[in-house]
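FORM 7B: Structural annotation worksheet

SECTION A. Query
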Amino acid sequence: MYRSRLYQEVIYGHFRDFMEVSGAFQALMRERGWAKGAVWTPTVGRGNLLVWEAEYPDLASFQREGDALYADKDVMDLVRQMGPHIVQGSAYSELWEQAPSSA
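SECTION B. Predicted structure
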């Protein structure tokens, strides 16, 4: 199992606009049959920080979906619409794998 996380900081005053576009993005992801992602924000801590999180059964699924996402014009149009609401240089990603269980 793999878990992808994308961290982004939203510009103050842009949170609602960002969330409207991200809602359309999530709807399109569901329509395409891709991993159901969730958007998280801290209860306490840094303001306007968001984490996109999605799970994949294997690394090949993560790669296949990523390739399809970047090749999809409608998805990329929404990504471009989110861009003006993000603090430049704040986005970074992580890919976690489930730790093996001990025997």
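SECTION C. Observations
The chain has a mean pLDDT of 94. Residues 15-32 form the longest helix (18 residues).

SECTION D. Sign-off
Analyst initials: ____
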